[in-house]
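We give the entry.
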Amino acid sequence: MKMKSVLVTGSLGQIGTELTPYLRNIYSSDKVVASAKNITEGIENVTKEGPFELVDVTKPEEIKAALKKYDIGTIYHLASLLSATGESNPQALWAVNMNGLNNILEAAREYKCAVFFPSSIAVFGPGSPQDKTPQDTVTRPTSIYGVSKVAGELLCDYYHQKYGLDIRGLRYPGVISNAALPGGGTTDYAVHIFYDAIRVGSYTCFLREDSSIDMIYMPDVLEGAVQVMEADPEKLIHRNAFNVSAITITPGKLAEELKKYIPGFTISYDIDPVRQAIADSWPNSLDDSAARAEWGWNPKYGLEKMTKDMLNVLSKKLN
């Protein structure tokens, strides 16, 4: 049987720029179609090393045209606005995150596609257990980004229950990457700190020193996304929105780890009240036992291994 193709929306974002070549390496370049609303400079490996389409997820006709043109069987739907960006323009976030998801699900229903939907630690709020937050618990977020992710999880569940659509996803914590820079999230500090540590030996953080948030390194992000989509559906109890985690850190703890390799590194704090309020509403750590039990989630990068790899890659890149 001829293999259907894969479509990646938001392919020029932080995760998409690395997930796209990762998928192309697995399924072949001609079978993975990258898409984005606009072309971003400096992402030639995504736009030129395989098919690329301009697709605005708020326009259903553009989604359906791509699904039909490339005979798409699976959609990795990454197009979204992030938490800090969303607080400055809630209406724009809702249009992209919710209307865009609804358009993707409707198109997937028509063309019988499987869908990967990334959710977030942002679904939790002050009423959620703060330590080892369970898979199934209170989700009452206080950010518009979190609200859109909770609504997205429920909409995905609805499409699975009503239409039998194969939808799976992960609740990502903060994502750390050595490739593309993050785009307006509350956990962006955990990437920017490495750049400033290498370039100038110091960093000014927008979160408090003791702000504890789970993180995950990009290689584990990529492996987890593919792993959950290829998992045996008979073993999946939750299917959608699995908690996943790998590293629990604070800005202070990450700074101490960096000092092991850059002894003169210093950190100072200039708190952003908007992002600090979002961070304070999120859990300190997640319980990802459901993902481990149902499809074998087992991250490979802890704090020490991640830090060494980030410094190694970025030192070469920035030099």
User: Anything to note?
Assistant: The chain is about 45% helix and 15% strand. The mean pLDDT is 94. Residues 177-214+247-285+296-318 form a domain with the UDP-galactose 4-epimerase; domain 1 fold (CATH 3.90.25.10).
